[in-house]
Design brief:
The structure holds 2 protein chains of 2 kinds.
Chain A: H1 4-21, E1 27-31, H2 34-38, H3 41-55, E2 60-64, E3 76-79, E4 86-88, H4 96-105, E5 114-117, H5 154-159, H6 164-184, H7 196-205, E6 212-217, H8 226-233, H9 235-249, E7 253-258, H10 263-278, E8 294-299, H11 309-316, E9 340-344, H12 345-357, H13 359-363, E10 373-380, E11 386-391, H14 396-403, E12 411-416, E13 422-425, H15 435-440, E14 449-454, H16 459-473, H17 479-497, H18 502-518, H19 522-526, H20 529-537, H21 539-547, E15 561-564, H22 574-578, E16 584-585, E17 593-594, H23 604-611, E18 619-622
Parallel strand pairs in A: 1-2, 6-7, 6-9, 7-8, 10-14
Antiparallel strand pairs in A: 1-3, 3-4, 4-5, 10-11, 12-13, 12-14, 15-18, 16-17
Chain B: H1 10-18, H2 26-37, H3 42-52, H4 56-65, E1 77-82, H5 85-89, H6 92-103, E2 116-121, E3 133-135, E4 138-140, H7 145-158
The chains are: A alpha/beta, B alpha+beta.
Chain lengths: 623, 159
């Protein structure tokens, strides 16, 4: 499909992009995703603007999305005329003059806070940004634009081959698109891994006057933020995917169901939709074809279960977000009883690239049954945290140690798939990450949260945390899920408190089986996973809690005590000041007293002693 | 709507007026009501009930299902302590305990002077910078029990 209007627009966009590249004006890029802003990107940006204004330099400051290595945030990139973009990491406002000064005054490239450059090859000993240990093993397909383009500018997306996938899709027609997606082997990135083409084909085959497309951006899995980053960094990729999906299944109306907890992503999405409409890519007769499509943003109201497709539909219809039995699957009878396709953000974000470069190309990445790449949020106790994209089949070890840089304390476990997933121990480090292998090991791929924990994290406490989460989020429809998860939490609490007996562990396992088999939707059916997998792989840690009343990771509150070592305490009174309950007393310059009956074990004293006090190690936590 | 409810005035009344009367508009209109008034008032529920032709019982059923809706006036400042997985393993629980103790309230409550609300949230999506705390619209990353004490002290002094 060749549209003169779009071609024209693209030519202008490409010219604009080249103009930017050749610009005599310095450019400052600030990584301003939600994560960057939390790390202080707004303050850094303000400091840069003030510094440049004071120097009388007319530079352009651009806010971009997250490029991935969140541990380096706030990130500030500098591009001087005729030179590649150079990235600086962990830039606080006070560091700004030291970095921008030499650029403005024409000095040597400042080396402090330097992360890497975005040009080709070696440059005065500065590494390429994409050669950094965290980035080098990655394959960036979905994330190719994140952090590089201004997400609010549709022209920048167009200049980087944006909406070429849609042109291709309209040219191929629905059958051609299905064929291409089938060839790519793309499976649902929301977690279940259902072949995308089959879902689309089922919906398309239905005889109906109306079909719907829903983009599931209800990323409720605690510890996962792939979808937020993609929407914040490259919203048009998701929208283009939606247009392709809609034209294939024959939907004229679409929804993006997004968490209200993601205000920046919602704002970026709204801007992108407005730009799309202006460009004639949304509405009636898109690109002069007979394809018409419009879409609406629906903000979720804070219910994890609404990530489940039938619950999500209920929520859009204005009802309590409770799942229903399937079949009929939404592709046959979904929103308002009409055939509906619900795809995850990342699935849709991948589609344009498959169309643009061909299904075969995409299938060249990954394993036999799990093709392509997948984004993961790599968080927890790894050194390099952030958002990554890797080919499926990469061993966990490579992800955690090569990309993530390993853990400071000895590695203990990795939780894949959030509250529905499982906890895998060290022996699984060589497991390839794909749908099948993870499921065999008792975990799941899930939407892509990888939480790494080390020796300081108590496995029992983590299982209790996840069960507590699913218990609170259970919609209450099925008794095994509503009541069963509550009992599981109670047993895990007993273990954490050292009140449990060995028979409780068997009860926990049995109960887990009941909850798993007796629940309607995936929330209940997978809720026991964290408890069952930890019981399987970390039983000795449970036993230590039960038999020895000891928490090996020194985490469980009721099994640890705080103690002041009088021989170490210098009596500096810092801990006395921060203790919120007045549990610590004592005159200056004399060892202090800690009253265990008042102590709420909040760690304030422990931390201040380590970082601020003279002794540094006078307070110990023991189990 | 034959008679305009006196409780719903201004921006909210306009939004209600603009409704087509579909059931699907219920959650967006509740969100709008909360954005305008800070919480869901019984009078608002009544007005919505009349406009959308959905019983008040049903509206409460929907509104209480979702964590977002509140039925009491909010405090002046809203503190959200993130207890997503990453925040949990990095000590979010202790930050919550300290905040609770310092403000003298539990989650879901407001300080007697109406200054602070305390809420625990499942995930703010800044997991790589855990633990995270949000005070109104500002996010604080890599928090510690000491940093939260500092922020609360500063906030109280500023008032």
């Amino acid at each position: 499909m060749n549209s003169p209007a779009l071609n024209d627009r693209r030519r202008r966009a490409e010219a604009g992009w080249q103009e930017l590249e050749a610009s005599r004006q310095p450019f400052i890029y600030v990584g301003a995703g939600s994560c960057g802003l939390a790390a202080g990107a707004a303050e850094t940006q303000k400091a840069a603007a003030e510094f440049l204004a004071a120097k009388g330099v007319a530079a352009r400051i651009v806010q971009v999305g997250c490029i991935g290595p969140c541990y380096l945030e706030p990130l500030m990139d500098v591009r001087m005329p005729g030179r590649p973009r150079i990235s600086y990491a962990n830039v606080a406002p006070k560091d700004v003059p030291g970095i921008l000064g030499p650029f403005v005054d024409g000095g040597a490239v400042p080396k402090s806070h330097l992360a890497g450059h975005f040009g080709e090859g070696d440059m005065d000993g500065i590494p390429r940004f994409f050669d950094l240990p965290m980035l080098k093993p990655q394959v960036r397909i979905v994330l190719r634009n994140c952090g590089l383009i201004d997400p609010d500018e549709i022209d920048q997306y167009l200049a980087r081959d944006g909406y070429r996938g849609l042109e291709k899709a309209l040219e191929l027609g629905p059958e051609g698109v299905l064929e291409e997606i089938k060839r790519s082997g793309l499976r649902g990135r929301g977690g279940a891994g259902f072949p995308t083409w089959r879902k689309w084909a089922t919906c398309r085959e239905q005889d109906a006057d109306q079909r719907y497309l829903i983009c599931n951006a209800d990323e409720g899995d605690p510890g996962a933020f792939m979808n937020r980053s993609l929407i914040e960094g490259d919203p048009h990729a998701v929208l283009e995917g939606m247009l392709i999906a809609a034209s294939t299944i024959g939907a004229t109306r679409g929804y993006v169901y997004i968490r209200a907890e993601y205000p920046l992503a919602i704002r970026r999405l709204k801007t992108a939709i407005a730009r799309l409409r202006e460009a004639g890519l949304l509405g009636a007769n898109i690109l002069g074809s007979d394809f018409s499509f419009d879409l609406t943003i629906k903000e979720g109201a804070g219910a994890f279960v609404c990530g489940e497709e039938t619950a999500l539909i209920a929520s859009i219809e204005g009802r309590r977000g409770m799942p229903r039995t399937r079949p009929p699957f939404p592709a046959i009878s979904g929103l308002r009883g009409k055939p509906t396709v619900i795809n995850n953000v990342e699935t849709l974000g991948t589609v344009p690239h498959i169309l643009r470069r061909g299904g075969e190309w995409y299938a060249g990445f990954g394993t036999e049954k799990s093709k392509g790449t997948k984004t993961f949020s790599l968080v927890g106790k790894v050194r390099r945290t952030g958002l990554i994209e890797v080919p499926l089949g990469m061993p966990l070890r490579e992800v955690i140690f090569d990309i993530g840089g390993g853990t400071q304390k000895p590695f203990k476990a990795v939780q894949s798939g959030g509250p529905s997933g499982g906890c895998l121990s060290e022996e699984f480090l060589d497991l390839p990450i794909d749908y099948e292998h993870l499921a065999q090991a008792g975990a799941i791929m899930g939407s892509g949260g990888l939480i790494v924990v080390d020796a300081d994290t108590c496995i029992v406490d983590m299982a209790r945390y996840f069960l507590g989460f699913t218990q609170k989020e259970s919609c209450g429809k099925c008794v095994p899920c509503r009541v069963g998860t509550r009992h599981m939490v109670e047993i895990l609490e007993k273990v954490c408190d050292g009140r449990a007996e060995l028979s409780d562990l068997d009860k926990l396992e049995k109960l887990g089986g009941v909850v798993r088999s007796g629940s309607l939707c995936a929330l209940g059916a997978t809720a026991p996973n964290p408890a069952l997998s930890t019981l399987k792989y970390f039983r000795p840690e449970f036993i230590a809690h039960v038999k020895d009343h000891r928490c090996p990771a020194v985490t469980c509150k009721n099994l640890v005590v705080y103690r002041i070592r009088p021989e170490k305490c210098t009596g500096c009174q810092r801990c006395v000041k921060v203790c919120p309950t007045g549990a610590i007393t004592g005159p200056r310059s004399e060892p202090h007293n800690l009253d265990p009956s008042k102590c709420i074990k909040c760690r304030s004293c422990y931390e201040i002693c380590r970082f601020d006090a003279i002794a540094g190690d006078a307070i110990v936590i023991e189990s | 709507m034959t008679k305009r409810d006196p409780a719903a005035t201004g921006e909210l009344a306009e939004a209600l007026e603009a409704c087509a009367g579909n059931r699907g508009e219920l959650i967006p209109i509740l969100q709008k009501a909360q954005a305008v008034e800070g919480f869901i008032r019984p009078e608002t529920v009544r007005a919505i009930s009349r406009r959308l032709k959905v019983t008040e019982n049903e509206i409460y059923g929907v509104a209480t299902f979702y964590a977002q809706f509140r039925f009491h006036p909010p405090g002046r400042h809203h503190i959200k302590i993130c207890l997503g997985t990453a925040c949990h393993v990095r000590g979010g629980e202790q930050i919550l305990a300290t905040t609770r103790e310092k403000l003298g309230i539990d989650t879901g409550q407001t300080t007697p002077d109406g200054e602070f609300d305390l809420e625990r949230v499942a995930c703010l999506g800044c997991c790589a910078l855990a633990p995270v705390v949000a005070l109104d619209d500002k996010f604080y990353s890599q928090m510690s029990v000491l940093k939260i004490q500092g922020i609360l002290d500063e906030q109280s002094r500023a008032e």
